[in-house]
Write a structure and sequence with these properties.
This protein is mainly α and 104 residues long. Helix 1 runs antiparallel to helix 2 and helix 3 packs antiparallel against helix 4. The protein has four helices and no strands. 84% of the residues lie in helices and 0% in strands.
Length: 104
């Protein structure tokens, strides 16, 4: 169950990271409120997952999910470049997440 909670926390991290782009420096109310809610939910769920998961593993997986998801959505939604080096780097992050899951 802790891994499922951590996954949702990571997905919320993607939500708030992408949401920051739409807040326009927190000058737009609805995107700002949604972004702040996603931030709070992400951290709260991370805290719940940490009740049973090791901190190093959980934090690395949480940030990895956020980094990979945000980079992917940046490419898909925001037209950021999908260079070979960028995709390879994302692949390395995914490999690290899988490795941590296997040993954690």
């Amino acid at each position: 169950m802790a891994w499922a909670i951590l996954l949702v926390a990571g997905l919320l991290e993607i939500g708030w990271a992408i949401g920051l782009k739409y807040t326009d420096g927190f000058s737009r109310l609805v995107p700002s409120v949604l972004t702040l809610a996603a931030m709070a939910g992400s951290v709260l769920l991370l805290g719940l997952a940490l009740k049973t998961l090791p901190i190093g593993t959980a934090y690395a997986v949480w940030t990895g999910i956020g980094a990979v998801g945000t980079a992917a959505l940046g490419i898909i939604l925001l037209g950021e470049p999908a260079t070979a080096m960028r995709l390879a780097s994302i692949g390395l992050i995914v490999s690290g997440i899988v490795g941590l899951k296997l040993v954690g």
